[in-house]
Amino acid sequence: MSSIGTGYDLSASQFSPDGRVFQVEYAQKAVENGGTVIGLRGKDGIVFAVEKIVTSKLYEAGTNKRIFNIDQHVGMAVSGLISDARQIVEIARSEASSYKSQYGIGIPLKYLNERVSMYMHAYTLYSAVRPYGCSVILGAYEHDGPAMYMIDPSGVSYGYYGCAVGKAKQSAKTEIEKLKLSEMTCNELVKEAARIIYLVHDELKDKQFELEMSWVGKHTNGKHERIPANIKTEAEAKAKQAMAEDSDSDTEDIIILNSKTLIQTKFKLSPVMYIGAAIALGFIGFFGFTANLLVAIVIVKDAQILWTPVNVILFNLVISIKCYFGDFLVSIFGNPVAMVSAATGGWYWGYKMCLCPYLLEKYAWFMSTLGFASIGNLTVMAVERWLLVARPMQALSIRHAVILASFVWIYALCLSLPPLFGWGSYGPEAGNVSCSVSWEVHDPVTKSEAYIGFLFVLGLIVPVFTIVSSYVAIILTLKKVRKRAGASGRREAKITKMVALMITAFLLAWSPYAALAIAAQYFNVSIYQDLRSINIQTIEKKNTNIIYAKPSATVAVLPALLAKSSICYNPIIYAETKKGRLENLGESCLSTYSVYFFESLRTNKRTRNRILKEKKKSRRTFVKMRNPIATVVLFLLAVSIFCDGTTHAYNVLMATMGGTKSHTIPFVALGISLKTRGHNVTLLSAFPGPAANNGLQEFVPPIFEKEIILESMEELDRELFESNTHSVLKRVCDTGDVRAQVALYSGSISRQGNPSPWSVTPYFGKSLTQDMSFVQRILNAACLVSLRIMHWFMITGYLQPVLRKYLGNQLPDVRDLTTEIPLTLQNSHYSVADSVPYLANVVNVACLHCKPATHLSPDLETFLQRGFIFVSMGSSVRASGMPEALRQIFVAAFATLPCNVVWKWEGMKIKDLPSNVRTAAWWPQQELLGHSKLRAFVSHGGLLSLHEAAYHAAPTLVLPVFCDHDGNAAQAEKLGYALVMDLAGISIGSLRDGILKVAAIHNNSYRTAAKKRSTLLRDLPINPRKLATWWVEHVAKYKGEHLKSSTRHMSVIHYYSIDVVIFYVITLTLLMYGLKKLCWRTISKQAVKKKIN
To answer: Mind spelling out the 3-state secondary structure of 874-898?
Structure first.
């Protein structure tokens, strides 16, 4: 009687008429769907082993543990719903903690088992709750020896010597029952537990898994611990070895190729045949490897592709390399394996290597895919050459060529993947010399007949028809051209000979294979023998409809040898084609090809002129480059352009010509991120070093490398625009224009339509925040207006004339150019600054350059252990340039501090330096700010330094020097993580007191506020660096027009609707005036009338 669906399965507290509690059974089913967990109890301890199924490739190894510590001496392994299991773990830990606090000793395992089982049972008694969907195994080593219990979802518990729960519990229990557990040590149990988990997992054919193991016993002094990695690794290795030995220990006459149905006899050839096959395979492998290697060298050295105009030369290069690469892989992996098998008299590598080796996953599938890809490549090359000769106006573009090359591999996978999903099969062939498609087996279950037919049509007939048609069309086209030109047929005969060679080689390699497979599947050929009479009682799943065909020795080996010899034919064909090139299919292909790619890369003018001269000198059809270095470089450039076109790599130019050296830091961080995404990044900067040191391309105009940058504005103009900077500035990159704003100057983004009201936009050069008084707002408005006026004069009076002088009068107004910038990456964030209303074209990426602290040198670590103060005035202020009186104040204040000081000092060694102070011209600032022993950070108030302090939760003492330092310091002080002091009038005592106030360990509001800022900066939906990278790629892809606001073109009157306000004011004034006149006239009439009366 089934009660499912009658309402008895809706509550855990209700029995069905046949005495069942369905909710409990459902909970037990949830446990059976989980990974297998086993517990083994030996004579000196307990071993837990858990099979953790890996459900995703993104899964992080070692997470979602299934084994837990309950107390120091008690372990718990769980299976089922992990969230339910964690609740049980917390209950058990609470019970253990309460017992220990009450009695002063660890909780006995028996008592803990009773408490947990009672708790789980309680959840089966009430309708408002549901049973726990998990089973747990408890184990401990107590004074009387090891003990182990298992509790199921109903709350029932039993003591066990060995138990298993989860998906494969029955198979695991069968294996456990074979063990003599009472005589085994923990070390022996570990090996057996690993073997059992691997065995039951293999039987289930499930996904990948991780093995989690722990133990508790006499050897651990009663403590529950994870099994050491070396012991666990050894146990897993022996488990895998045992499984491999089991799978190879089948009967001598039968190999199981498919666990469902397929079997195949071990065809035995004579020793002479095996030796002959080994010699033949050895020759094919050696010749194929050597020939394909030479083809690759010729391709790289000559940089010539067959019959290729400039618009498809890259496609043919890639296709040829792919053909060569597939044959090259076959010569490396395929032939040596088959040769060893032939030399040893049969498939030497075992069943696992045939179907599932660790190196290539599927050997037979891998080799078949390469073979089909080679066939597809030859077919595609034939079609492409026909288009070039017979339809020159329809020649393939690079984009079409890339799509076609990708289609080749899709085609190969479509032909090779079906056996992995049950249609057809792979297995030993040719006297078990190699592994390939099982054409010798006719199996209706896997429908091998249909699969062989599928391969015959799409893998042979269609390619042969396409190749023959293409080359016949080429010959006919050349024949027509010869008749029109009145030329001899000598060249046509040579091409015909080459075409015949290609077709003959193709058919010779693959036709015997196809013919034998079709004969085995569709015809009752006399050389085949029905082997259904073989005794196959040892096979668990039999199928009497399977026909096993045993060909003779010669017939079995010949097709495989001919197919493998195709790796020798392709190089011969390439060589013959190279020898017999058509001379009227293009002019100076290689030279034109060089110009094409160098122009695609937009290289400098000098390089293009040199290549154009080479093109004029060369009037031959094909040019042989005599400079091997140039050829290799050209080849690499071709490949890079190909990758650039298919992976959407962009050329990114980042320019930061002003500010200080630290302003390049965010650019370098963004450049590194873009480079890892495959883009070409160049940094145009006034400061050499940062970009080049991080692997980016860097361009620094020579004038900026001088000690004295500016002696006159004319010198700057000459250096900027008469040197190589000119070509760099004129270079057009793929990404469009993305502004990266370092300082918080609102004038730039306001040109793009962003609101910048003076009431909430403080001037960065003053100690102002959004919380301004009336007087401060007056000062702020004056500063912002002055800054706008100065900015306008600099652009219109100096920058615009200089740019037009060197770039042409057609250059638009610079202010209009800034208006059209689609996106601004602003080094700000509401976590470290006031919240400001911006449009979508402003993205805040503060702390773009910040990163977690890493390890320091052992010597420095020792110095920091006492606690330390880090003092750095950044790269814009040289501490060594401070007045001597101020330096003495710093030194004296540092000497009185109760901790060490790390000071960024660029000058000569200080003679009176205290012993607790260490100086250097450079320190790893972020590593020091993130160090656990940091007490305080003394800074000049640079924006990047304060961002790093907030990111690493470093309480800061700010000593502003100039420019934006005052504004940055005021903002940091408002947020609470910084104390601001003025350098003017500072004393030893005030400096020391300020440092100690910020560095206080207890009741430190600065440290608390810094931790809050750090939490806000780190708890973001996406890392700022990834966010900036995404936006750059987004603008590069879509050009950013959708981000631009129409407000950027509005005048002040239009933007603030001043004209609308004036309209309403005038209208209202006129209306009120009219009403007044009307009322006055009415009153006057009444007064006159009354007077008359």
So the answer is: CCCCCHHHCCHHHHHHHHHHHHCCC
Q: What is the mean pLDDT of the chain?
A: 73
pLDDT of residue 855: 87
Residues 86 and 156 in one domain: yes
Identify the CATH number of the domain in which residue 376 sits: 1.20.1070.10
> Are residues 992 and 897 in contact, defined by beta-carbon separation less than 8 angstroms?
yes
| pLDDT tens digit sequence for 823-851 | 888 888 888 888 888 888 888 888 888 88
The pair of three-digit structure tokens given for residue 1081, joined into one six-digit string: 């006239």
Shared-domain flag, residues 924 and 1011: yes
Tokens standing for 413? 């996978």
Q: What is the CATH number of the domain that holds 221?
A: 3.60.20.10
What is the identity of the amino acid at 655? Answer: A
Q: What is the mean pLDDT of residues 873-886?
A: 84
CA dist 544 and 679 (Å) reads 60
pLDDT of the residue at 958:
94
* Pick from 635, 691, 685: nearest CA to 660: 685
**Which residue has tokens 């979602």?**
64
Distance CA 628, CA 648 (A): 30
d(CA 49, CA 72): 19
Tally Cβ neighbours within 10 Å of residue 944.
Answer: 24
Q: Are 953 and 1011 in contact (CB under 8 A)?
A: yes
Domain that holds residue 989: 858-1019
Question: Which pLDDT score is estimated for 336?
Answer: 54
Residue corresponding to tokens 């400039």: 310
Residues in the chain, how many?
1093
Closest CA to 241 of 105, 325, 326, 358: 358
The answer to whether residue 478 is domain-embedded is: yes
Look at residue 263 and tell me if it is in a domain.
no
Residue 881 CB-half CA count within 13 A? 7
Interstrand relation of 978-980 and 956-958 (parallel, antiparallel or unpaired): parallel
pLDDT band at 527 (very low <50, low <70, confident <90, very high): very low
Q: What angle, 0 to 180 degrees and rounded to 10, lies between the N-to-C axes of helices 448-456 and 490-522? A: 170
Looking at 476-485, 796-805, 832-841, which range is the least confident one? 476-485
Contact (Cβ atoms closer than 8 angstroms) between residue 696 and residue 682: yes
464, 373: one domain: yes
Distance of alpha carbon 1040 from the chain centroid = 25
Alpha carbons 563 and 545: distance in angstroms, whole number: 30
Task: Identify whether residues 385 and 498 lie together within a single domain.
Answer: yes
What are the phi and psi torsion angles at 341 (to 5°)? -60, -45
Q: Which residues in 53-66 are b (16+ Cβ under 10 Å) and which e?
A: beeeeeeeeeeebb
pLDDT, average across residues 74-80 = 94
Question: Do 158 and 32 fall within a single domain?
Answer: yes
CA–CA separation, 614 vs 8, rounded Å? 90
Tokens of 488: 């001899």
- Whether the pLDDT of residue 327 is over 80: the answer is no
Distance in angstroms (rounded) separating the CA atoms of residues 126 and 193: 38
Q: What is the pLDDT of residues 672-730, one digit of tens each?
A: 888 888 888 888 877 776 766 676 777 776 555 444 333 444 444 444 343 334 333 44
The answer to whether residues 1072 and 983 belong to one domain is: no
Q: Is residue 364 part of a domain?
A: yes
pLDDT, residue 883, reads 86
DSSP SS3 for 312 = helix
Which of the 8 DSSP states describes residue 60? P
Considering its fold, how many domains does the chain have in total?
Answer: 4
What does the DSSP 8-state code read for residue 106? P
Q: What is the pTM of this model?
A: 0.43
SS3 content of the chain, % helix, strand, coil (to 5): 55, 10, 35
User: Distance (Å, rounded) from C-alpha 439 to C-alpha 520?
Assistant: 7
